Amino acid sequence: MANFQTVNKQLEIIERGTVEIVPKDELVEKLKTSYDSNTPLRIKLGCDPTRPDLHLGHSVILRKMRQFQDLGHHTILIIGDFTAMIGDPSGANKTRPALTREEVVANGKSYFEQASKILDPEKTEIVYNSEWLSPMSFEDVIKLASHYTVARMIERDDFTKRYQNNDTISLHEFLYPLAQGQDSVHLKSDLELGGIDQKFNLLVGRHLQREFGQSQQICLMMPLLVGTDGTQKMSKSYDNYIGIDEKPEDMYGKTLSIPDSLIYTYFELLTDVEESDLPEIKIKTEQDPRNSKHDLAWTITKLYHGSERADQARAYFEKTVVNKDIPDDIEEFPLETGTTHRLLDVMKSVTFVSSNSEGRRLVTQGGVSLDGEKITDPQFEFQLESGQELVLKVGKRKYGKLTAS
């Protein structure tokens, strides 16, 4: 049997960092009933594995789910292998391309492996919504669609803007929120987690539960984490992300690149610092942002790599960025002798950049050097002679020794 904390204490933890809870009074009642009956609430989080890699923006909602696990509630992670093939219209200004089932399955496996750095795998029920959505007949879909109106659907902000701009809205996109809502009906969820951009979808689930005579789920929305650029939401597309699987030195260095205005928010949403310590952190951040940012970078790196690696990451930063030294443990990358190598291709092959476009941007901005010489031509090519070594530096923190093989 669960051993729940008081309702007030649970609420304090649950409300930390949240944008909106709909409706809060019903959440209080559910928590009271759960506490009195010693029965865990059913907490649902759906993820469409459209990309195989997670960043700290994804961690905001996963950390909230972990809090529910630690509070003793039953958590259900839905891998949206069916809904990902429709494509979530949230925030889209055009129809999203559908993924193949093979892509979704591969991404889903990678998603859970990375999510397990935050969630407790033994306390996480994993389900795939194709289990109940795939067997639905066309008749079942028609009956499901009869529970929601076109007028309500078109009220959705994404659809409204696209409709007004005469942009394409495909009929299958109307089915996405219905399918996600059917997940809530099938699982009889008490509360669903999501980013604030998922509010419409979460409320559809609440509506459908009422239509099917169930107790309605609470909708808890978390903020969209602003990325390292300080303006856009964190996204790999915007190249303003910190990956959950980043190397310690990259995680540390990227955290230091955020604007001072985000330090407190990152402490609140991305770390385990006590709620009671946040006011003091806020004051310190305002008075001494530089050291506060180092504390933040160390704390985040420690969460994913441990104290020792966080210490090493800080030392690496001091050596390579502050003192501008080449690290002692620089990794070597052998290249074929006598062959012409395009610098952009080399940067991508050694995973210093994720794409040629990222590499091209860094080169043109003066962020790449070869043996101390800044390279500004994206088409730069070079050859290595026998026994030759060149030190490649990309950005402020990435070093590699290119050796002739």
Write the SSE topology.
Blueprint: H1 7-15, E1 20-22, H2 24-37, E2 42-47, H3 56-70, E3 74-79, H4 101-115, E4 124-128, H5 130-133, H6 138-145, H7 150-154, H8 157-164, H9 171-187, E5 191-195, H10 199-211, E6 218-222, H11 248-256, H12 263-270, H13 278-287, H14 289-305, H15 307-322, E7 331-335, E8 341-342, H16 343-349, H17 356-364, E9 368-370, E10 373-374, E11 381-382, E12 389-394, E13 398-404
Helix pairs in contact: 9-10, 11-14, 11-15, 12-13, 12-14, 13-14, 14-15
Structure description:
Helix content is 45%, strand content 14%. The protein is an alpha/beta fold and 405 residues long. It folds into three domains: 7-222, Rossmann fold; 248-322, Tyrosyl-Transfer RNA Synthetase; 331-404, Structural Genomics Hypothetical 15.5 Kd Protein In mrcA-pckA Intergenic Region, Chain A (Roll). Strands 1-6-5-2-3-4 form a six-stranded mixed sheet, sandwiched between helices. The longest helix has 17 residues, at 171-187. The N and C termini lie far apart (62 Å). The model has no long low-confidence stretch (mean pLDDT 89).
List keywords for this structure.
alpha/beta, 6-stranded mixed sheet, 5-stranded mixed sheet, globular, 3 domains, Rossmann fold, 405 residues, Tyrosyl-Transfer RNA Synthetase, 17 helices, Structural Genomics Hypothetical 15.5 Kd Protein In mrcA-pckA Intergenic Region, Chain A
